[in-house]
Design a protein that fits this description.
With 346 residues, the protein is an alpha/beta fold. It has 2 domains: 167 residues, Rossmann fold (3-Layer(aba) Sandwich), CATH 3.40.50.1980; 126 residues, 3-Layer(aba) Sandwich (Rossmann fold). The chain has 12 helices and 8 strands. A 4-stranded parallel β-sheet has the order 2-1-3-4. A 4-stranded parallel β-sheet has the order 6-5-7-8, with helices on both faces. Strand 1, helix 2 and strand 2 form a beta-alpha-beta unit. Helix 6 packs antiparallel against helix 7, helix 7 packs parallel to helix 12 and helix 9 packs across helix 10. It is globular and about 65 Å long. The N terminus is likely disordered.
Amino acid sequence: MRSSHIKRFAAAVCAAAAALSSMSACSFGGNVETAGKESSDEPKKLSVVTTIFPQYDFTKQLAGNLADVTMLIGPGEEAHTYEPTPQDIIKIQNADIFIYAGGESESWVNGILGSFDSSGMEIIDMMTLCDTVEEEIVEGMEGYDSEHDENDYEGNEEDNSPKETTDPDEAEFDEHVWTSVDNAQIISQAISDALCKVDEDNSAVYRENCEKYLSELSSLKKEIAQTVNGGVRKTIVFGDRFPARYFTDEFGLDYYAAFAGCAEQSEPSAGTVAFLIDKVNQEDIPVVFYIELSNGKVADTIAESTNAKTMCFNSCHNISMEQYLNGVTYVELMRQNCEALKEALY
């Protein structure tokens, strides 16, 4: 964890106790509780705290009205720069189940879990449930060939063959495991098991909901596979960060992108943009993707220099406030991706 994060985390922990008495119970989960107004004869609902949207939605599908589900990182917020507030820490401490994605962007979780006794809590780290892969720097991607510069794509006759420059000691595992539908099923099953363990009285409901949801995910995977298999090409282009590695691996797609994973950079070099423009023109690719909550500027630049149009690909890392208020689901977002692929691959 970066030193600045450690200092802020320590301050948050110290402030958490002071915030306990004044903490608002309203959170991103669609549940607003008012202290002192809960009927004494109503059973207390489970408290499930999640960090980001995928596990929040999985839990909502599995638990229904039997649990209060909180999403710490609010709609429209940038997950990679999030830092917990004292109120967030208290929510985690009071949870029956805590579910987080894992990885570098959620390195703050270890400090919080180490600050209190979490032995009575069910904790799910999604990355530990799935087979993970390292972030990959592919041809043309920012960081692939540091020796290319703007002139390399403007008639320069120097040797422009790609030169891999990634330091293997600095490789990071891709955190976006939920973009694989298979992994979504694995994670959902783990959440169902945790719900059954914590709330045995309602275990039959959780198991039934899980069976239905896993079937829905299976249908989703078939729809996407049929779309991919029917395409005339198997290559997609992202004029943006690339959080869809597990998705492309699962469905046998090739890809080019401006950045790996969810890189901190937002402006690629002219060489990277020129490479992607050339690739779109050479392979007559009709769609350039950008990811949700992105400004889409790089994708727009590529589209303006080609015959392609831009479309959103939902990584499901987070959603907009409008989507949240409309109750959008993981399955709905992935079906939107399926429709976008019909234009990108056909």
